[in-house]
Fold:
Amino acid sequence: MTKKLYIENYCSIKNNKVSLNGNLIFEEGSEDIKSFLKSVYQYLDPKYSKFFKMDALSKLAFLSAEILLKEEAKKNIAIILSNNASSLDTDRKYQDSINDKENYFPSPAVFVYTLPNIGIGEISIRHQLKSENGFFVFDNYNANFHYNYEKILIQNNKSEAVLAGWVNIDEDSYEAFLYLVSQNGTIEHTEKNLKQLYNN
Amino acid sequence: MREAFITHHNVISSLGFSSEENFEHLRNEESGIQKFQRDNGDEYYSSQVDKELINNAFSKIGDRTLYTTLEKMMLLSIHSILKESNLKISQKTGLIIATTKGNVDVLSPKSSFYKNKNRAYLPELGKQIQQFFNFKNEAIVLSNACVSGVLAVAVAQRLVKDGMYDDVIIVGGDLVSEFILSGFTSFQAISDQPCQPFSKNRKGITLGEAVASAIVSSEKSKDAVQVIGTGSCNDANHISGPSRTGEGLFLSVQSALNEAGVKSEDIDYISAHGTATNYNDEMESMAFGRLNMLHAPINSLKGYYGHTLGASGLLETIMGIESLKNNTLIASKGFDELGVSQPINVIEKTETRELQVFLKTASGFGGCNTAVIFRKIAD
Structure:
């Protein structure tokens, strides 16, 4: 039987602002991404020191998930994330470390973050989600694909809920829009609603 | 209920430019791994595709100066399956590109595309492929570490069964670049000999490069196999090491078995990930033990191709399909003495045997795992 699906909660982190379900919950004028993400971490206070080892993309994904999953009891939550720049922000840093033969210092701790799905791994570890996951790359947030794939996962009992959305870091710009799809909530899970919430 | 089938496929690797040619080499237990030299003079083993062969083949379908090596391989591979299948691209045709690192080699100042800053972006790779064949829909680029290739099969099966698309072209590919080589070397994960999956004497991975492509369709054709079950679960344990108990892999296979409606004893053959690192191979043996699959003949094709990253899951799926079609189990190259704690049934000698159902698995960084089950269908 077809389940009725909703966007249970959604959040965004962009332009020095953090909002949950359309309401501003945190704002700070920081000079760069790193210090802004640190201030969001301090505001959420998850007491999770692994955070400081992560690259910016994983930090952004981790913090968005923290906002949405803080009081979440469901465990079979799939994670489906997408972005435009994959892990290029860290790829460039890693490439710089191997360009110069005189100054050659490839680091395994940096190399591991040259994969966009590592942030999904970080969220999975933090919330103990042994569930479906996938990282996709598009020009812009692709509501059509997201809507269809999220629906498929829940309707085919691959997961009970889906944590999904867009998390992008590229040089000085950052943007996260994450949401939880489940059978609870009031905003219907449709392509149109996803597009609208993303554009807000 | 709609079903999904793999109807056509192609592999471009050190062992040839078609699936048949590749399988013929496997049947003869011929590996594509050779000795190469890095920029700093260090020697390493790898399986790589002759770039001159790629350029010569590509000249027949396009301008070789306009595309990166990876793009040329992907275009050639897709060109081959489109020609063979006569598929007409419509609004209901999807495109999935699976890659771990895409055109990352263009970040190097040595690349002829270095000044073209856009080329390193994966959506740009998607556009090059989409525009070449005039696909109507934006490419879905899937970048999920080393499971990307087999996860692409799972995603395509789901989108086809659901009806979003009637056909999905999937292509998986990665190159051996200084970026990848230096990274895995920094992890001390690279073997100084051709890799030996599941062996007591294994010393780590061998890197390889390849491109593989396939059509996943709602309509079956001659020689098609059905994609009957899929699962992709995270270990939730560590970002760069597998779970000791194989939890994510165990859950992925269970999910695929449930969907397929088959039991562990129905699996005739397992095409494992088998990277030949200590932790990976041990983890896989634990998962297959927990799944009661120790009976099933198992191999890793990494001894023939090395680890081809985002291509590997699809490449090994296609060789598994050839195994079903030819009723032939391929010896797990490099294996000598069992070096994992569970008594898995590693294929030591290539043999013919009636095969119906096979399981393909993969695992990767970020704790990801994927399992897909395939069944031969009657003509």
